[in-house]
Amino acid sequence: MNQETRTGGSVRQVEVAIAGAGFGGLCMAIKLLEAGIQDFVVLEKAHDVGGTWRDNTYPGAACDVQSHMYSYSFATQPDWTKRYAPWSEIQQYILKVTEQYGLRPYIQFGQEVVSAVFNEANGRWVIKTASGDTLMARHWVLASGPLHVPSIPNIKGLKDFQGKVMHSAQWDHDYDLTGKTVASIGTGGSAIQYVPEIAPKVKQLHVFQRTAAWVIPRDERNYSAFSKWLFRALPVTRTLHRWRCYWTNESRVWPIFNPKLAHVGEFFLKKFIAWQVKDPALVKKLTPDYTLGCKRILISNKWFPTFNRPNVELVTDDLREITADGIVTKDGQTRKVDCIILGTGFVVDPRIYMKNFELKGRKGHNLAEDWKTSPTSYLGITTAHYPNMYQLVGPHTGLGHNSIIFMIEAQVEYIIECMKALKRQGADFLDVKPEAQARFLADVTEHLKGTVWSSGCRSWYQTAEGTNFAIWPKSTWRYWLETRHVNVSDYEWVKCQAGDRSAPVGLDEVLGGA
Ligand code: N01
Q: Is 51:148 a contact under the CB 8 Å cutoff?
């Protein structure tokens, strides 16, 4: 690795730069090492690994995908305590894998990327961080993930509230909720986990619901000592168990693809709500009015019964404003509260969360401009006019039914294949052809038609304009098949005009911009 230092920040040249040290960035790092590439750096804006699992520590935070499936296929572990692990166990797993694969020397913490500009003359990305450091990288991997920027709702008066305000992803564990009157806004994946945990502690809890969520029962079983012993003694048993989890999840695509089947599921889930909630008026309010699966399906046995508690109120009236000490609904009623918890989700649209991040590709292309209509890319990985740039969990590769780790692994393998193909082609950079990208977009758009995702609800899978840019609308094994090989004809393979690309590029060239 080359390293030069200059007042105001270091300048370093690497083969690969990765942004983000969550599940995606760490997987990329492990597979680079396995491919014999050690000349890389992982830039992480926080001070530890883990991404969303480092940040989301709210009470009850847990995975809604089975632990044996929500882990790397190449680093399964026998001792998950239960079917769906709490966040702390997942974070411990991430820390363990980081040590096991010796990744720490490759990670720079406290490094927030502020710009990435492609230099066509030498085929390198010039990546700058908030601390003033500069990286020159041949390959540039965006692994920051779509669920890391808290979405703060634009409710009149929120900033004037004099009590405590916290977002679910920024939980303040020093703030004691015992005996407090609390408002919780939102009823998504996070709220349905923390609301049942805090309800017994607080004096009064007002849960503000804008849209009811479809919630299915959760398998709360712990793994027995015997199961864990078996998983350890006979690794093939955990592989088989993983496969069972995979195909169980994969079978859920049928109701997703066929809303008629989803309506059958709704029939049983309505019974589940009526069985768990005593008051028929509440049952009605808690029953969604959109097709099952259109928004992410949530899992909990505790969510609905929480509303049987005398100290929990479900508020379905629209919010009007927040005052210094309470929340006012459209009907004019004020509820005085000590604390407001925002279970309002994340900014998922990259055009919004990347708005302060300059990303410039070839020939004057700018990602903010190119994605003006909607974020789009090829296989959710490469984007036309942004050579040697790869995304993990990019557009159209989010899931509603299975483990995102499966998708990440397929993407990482594909990226490694791209890097190898670049060498074989004797090129300096690869750029996906716009027609290949358009073909991919047409294909996913076609597959979205007729699914529950196109049945008319609003969800974070969509842009503000209503375009679903987030979801992979097929089985995950089909994604695996489609990313098995790099189709050389889908890419332009470009050799730079300049002399020897292997030689270090001068400091002035780096700092002079691309
Ligand atoms: O966020 P959400 P989340 N006024 O966007 C409401 C993942 N996750 O943090 O539906 C009033 O789902 C909003 O209402 P509506 C998982 O993928 C994974 O809960 O838009 N309400 C909704 O009810 C999940 O899907 C795990 O009408 C407002 C809620 O806030 C994703 O993270 C665990 C509002 C936001 O729900 C996000 O979950 C937890 C406003 N102005 C989460 N703005 C795993 O286990 C928003 N809302 C892997």
A: yes
pTM above 0.90, yes or no: yes
Question: Are 480 and 408 in contact, with CB atoms under 8 Å apart?
Answer: no
Radius of gyration of the chain measured on its C-alpha atoms: 24
Nearest-CA neighbor of 120 among 495, 508, 474?
A: 495
Nearest CA to ligand 1 atom 26: 63
The 10s digit of each residue's pLDDT in 225-264 is 999 999 999 999 999 999 999 999 999 888 888 899 999 9
CB 59 within 8 A of CB 36: no
d(C-alpha 143, C-alpha 24), whole Å: 6
Give the residues across from 390 on adjacent strands.
141, 382
Answer whether residue 8 shows pLDDT above 90. no
How distant, in Å, are the alpha carbons of 437, 445, 451, 467, 489 from that of 384? 7, 18, 28, 20, 14
How many angstroms separate the Cα of 202 from the Cα of each of 57, 304, 310? 19, 17, 11
296 in contact with ligand 1, CB cutoff 6 A: yes
473/449 Cα distance (integer angstroms) = 9
* Best residue among 344, 352, 408 to mutate for probing ligand 1, ranked by most atoms within 8 Å of CB: 344
CA of 344 to the centre of ligand 1 (A): 5
Token output for 441: 């977009």
Reading the block at residue 419, the tokens are 């890097």
H or E stretch covering 205: strand 204-208
φ and ψ at residue 198, rounded to 5 degrees: -90, -20
What is the 3 state secondary structure string of 100-131? HCCCHHHEEECCCEEEEEEECCCCEEEEEECC
Average pLDDT over residues 45-68: 96
Q: What is the distance in A from the centroid of ligand 1 to the CA of 146?
A: 13
Instruction: Enumerate residues 6+ apart whose C-beta is below 8 A from 377.
Output: 383, 391, 394, 395, 396, 432, 437, 440
pLDDT, tens digit (0-9, with 9 covering 90-100), for 383-408: 999 999 999 999 999 998 999 999 99
CB atoms within 10 A of CB 503: 10
Using most ligand atoms within 8 A of CB, pick from 64, 88, 210, 459 the residue to mutate for ligand 1. Answer: 210
